[in-house]
Amino acid sequence: MRVWRISAFGGRLTQEPSRAGLLALLALMVGLCALVLLSAMLGSEAPGPGQALKALMGKGDAGAILIVAEFRLPRSLVAILAGGMLGLAGALIQGATRNPLADPALLGISQGAALTVIGLSVLAPGVAGEWRPPAAFLGGILVAGLILLLSHQREGSGPVRLLLTGIGIAAFLSALTTALLTYGGVNEAHAALAWISGSVRLVGWPEVRLLAWLTPPALLIAALCSRPLAVLRLGDELATVLGHRAGRARAWLMAAAAAMAAAAVSIIGPIAFVGLIAPHLAARLARVGPGLHLALSWAVGAGLTGLADLAGRWLFAPVQIPAGLVTALVGAPLMAALMIRRFGRKPA
Q: Any idea of the CA torsion for 35, 38, 40, 46, to the nearest 10 degrees?
């Protein structure tokens, strides 16, 4: 198998991507471009491929430009960029904990963001719309930090302790969110339900620009995380023998994943199963190292979220189903099938 060696930052960032992995990544990027074009074409108004391409470039019919460039394109780009963040976060968490069933919900990010948004909508409805993204980001980060702090041990955050702490706090936050939805005002609670469902229906170019600024640093951080991930694959004991501090590396990886997932959730709301499934699908595309696996996870997460938004918008038009509900409906059986295929043939 032919590989190329890429080194930067004095050797701190070193990658040896295989040809199969690079071809898989290239195919995914081409698929994302095709997804953007398909999203521009499909809807109640359906321009042809040529007209959609002209509209994407700001040319052609004014009505098509308005529909494609001002409504469909930013929605598709936000879904792709936010989904990529979730895919990255899921791959980092699964690699750091060596748990194939871990996802950003393990850190309570979705639950913390949801509780913050619901609390803001119920207690301060006048400012809820304006402050929803920063409040969701802050809520997700604070809860993730609390879980990491409570699960901290002398050698860092142990995977089992982190898992149990995350499950307990996430359940508690979900109960508080349900209480606010039950006893809060109907109008105020209903205003936040679309966000909780994981909808990109109301996003625009400001959200695209924000995610476009955040994505390159996230990808760079993920590339720098490839070496700690490779070390943690060996196990904590062997990593310590080789001179690495496994606990500290895990804590940094979890912090990076928390920031990425919180940024995505703050804009599009909780999207179920993307961070959980994307790393598994990426691993099935090609056998690669941690660095290229992170890149594939980004592309797969982006494609899954973009497809979910397109399906929810087009298949049941004029009714629009939030992308989060689509991923939940499709993700649960898909994840079950992946787990049965992976573990079902192993002897008890």
A: -170
Q: Which two tokens stand for residue 265?
A: 């959730």
Q: Is residue 214 part of a domain?
A: yes
Count: domains in the chain: 1
Exposure on the CB side of residue 117, measured as CA atoms within 13 A: 32
Q: What is the DSSP string of 274-342?
A: HHHHHHHHHHHH----HHHHHHHHHHHHHHHHHHHHHHHHHTTTTS---HHHHHHHHHHHHHHHHHHHH
Instruction: Classify residue 115: in a domain, yes or no.
Output: yes
Q: Are 92 and 229 in contact (CB under 8 A)?
A: yes
Q: Is residue 227 part of a domain?
A: yes
| Euclidean distance between CA atoms 319 and 343, whole angstroms | 38
At residue 139, the 3 state secondary structure works out as helix
Which CATH number covers residue 177? 1.10.3470.10
What digits encode the pLDDT tens for the residues 103-145?
887 778 888 888 888 888 777 766 666 677 888 888 888 888 8
| pTM of structure | 0.84
For 65-85, b where at least 16 C-beta lie within 10 A, e where not — what string? bebbbeebbbbbbbbbbbbbb
Structural domain containing residue 304? 82-314
- Angstrom distance (rounded) from CA 148 to CA 93: 12
308 in a domain, yes or no?
yes
8-64 pLDDT, tens digit each? 545 555 556 677 878 888 999 999 999 988 887 776 666 666 666 666 666 666 666
Backbone angles phi, psi at 99, to 5 degrees: -120, 110
Residue 323 near residue 79, CB atoms below 8 Å: yes
